[in-house]
Description:
Layout: H1 2-28, E1 40-42, H2 49-60, E2 66-68, H3 72-84, E3 91-95, H4 99-102, E4 105-107, E5 118-126, H5 129-132, H6 134-142, H7 147-158, H8 165-175, H9 177-184, E6 193-199, H10 203-219, E7 221-227, H11 230-238, E8 244-250, H12 255-260, E9 265-282
Parallel strand pairs: 1-2, 6-7, 6-8
Antiparallel strand pairs: 3-9, 4-9, 5-8, 5-9
Amino acid sequence: MKKLTATLLAVILGMVLTACSSTNDTSEGENGETELKLDEIIGIEPGSGTMNMAEETVEEYNLDMELIPSSEPAMITELEQAISEEKPIVVTLWQPHWTFDEYDLKILDDPKEIIGVEQQIHTIVRQGLEEEHPSAYQFLDNFHWEVDDMNTVMAMFGQDDDVKPRDAAEVWIEENREKADSWMEGIEPVENESIKLAYIEWDTELSSTNVVALLLEEIGYDVDLTPLDMGIAFESIAQGEVDGTLIAWLPGGASTYMEQYEGDIDDLGPNLEGAKQGFVVPAYMDIDSNEDLPTK
Length: 296
């Protein structure tokens, strides 16, 4: 009897261990690899140009994945948690962004060229700014930097909560004085004049806006930085309530607003070229294209 009981216990224990092993294998994917069943894409704020393009991408590729609205900070938290556990994740991210310096990430190829096309970030100003504030207009027209410049500023405050965007911008200007001075060359200083710039609270826009604000202050302006959603920023510039912004991603997130307010705003052209958005995954994931994602 004791022998039979021991045998039964061994069988039951074996079944339990097998079940646990099976559950773990399922959660980790076949052969313990990191390619778990991907069923969601972590996005940013609903209604943003990035999310609109992401929704279109999901539809065009017939993806069997749910696009989850979030925010940039929440999305980055999800990404960092997944990387710490080496789990698969798909996020709607963009380059420049400090995470590309911190982690080994890749933007998935986008053969249909919906979300993954190369973009520019444009400077937009209100009509009449050139006549009323020629020094500010000339400086904003001159401002143009590179992806590496923006990444450097973002890396300083994006990875350290004790470093503020303005502090990072000050360090970058000090270390790139020649480039900064070239944007101000020939511009007349001013006194008792103010400029109001709108920005989105994205790390990219915090970087460029703070660098520009500090240099406008060197010219003599009192600079008011106002956080606004992109649509409200464009509307405010068109109505003359805000002087300008550096946040217009084209042909992506700002295209709708550019069309809507054409004729009521001035486009000074790109302040940064070579930007790119897309579905982004950690490099340890064995996929390279949107076509590799699960479909219906």
